[in-house]
Amino acid sequence: MIRTRSAARRSFRTAAGICLAALLTACANAPAHQGAAAVVGDERITVATVEAKITAVRDATAEQPGAPRAERAGLARRTVAELVLDRVLAKALADRGASVSETEVAQARAADAQLLGGTSQLEGELLAKQGVPAVGIDDFYRQQLGLQKLASAAGQDPRSAGGDEAIRKALVTAGTALRIEVNPRYGHWDPEQIGLTDATEDWLPQNSTLY
Question: By residue range, what is the domain housing residue 129?
Fold first, then answer.
């Protein structure tokens, strides 16, 4: 069991059950949205970024016998949702004058690797249990630590019901304040659910682009 993930499990499941849904309002054919999977505030999350992450996960699982094979449509929605949640989380932390440093990420990662018996064991555990490829491990820890910090900023234990509620409230507030738009093929962002809903897989014909 990974310590950092265990410490935030309840918080993350509620906050990120959030996560594995869909995103945003339908986007217009504006030039700023060309090639975008989502637009969060002034930041564009490109389709290319999403595709690169999908490829990393699929390549990693293909190389590891017994690793679960993610269905592509679900993996695409999950990837977009995770990328948007990262931006929502960053705003929630910034609103509280908090952030997650690279040193904190490295320390948490090293501590869990030691508990599991090494870097390879940690990578295998995260890939098998969380679908996180090696190139995404730092992002995983950054998100987990950020969620814990939201609870701590409210004076709550991240593992408690109070911590869970503090995280949800912070993410709902930040997500509502941000101007989030998502390509309809991935879904619609619901600030209250903190996630993606109403994906339209066949919204576009093959080989065509909306953004």
Answer: 3-28+35-197
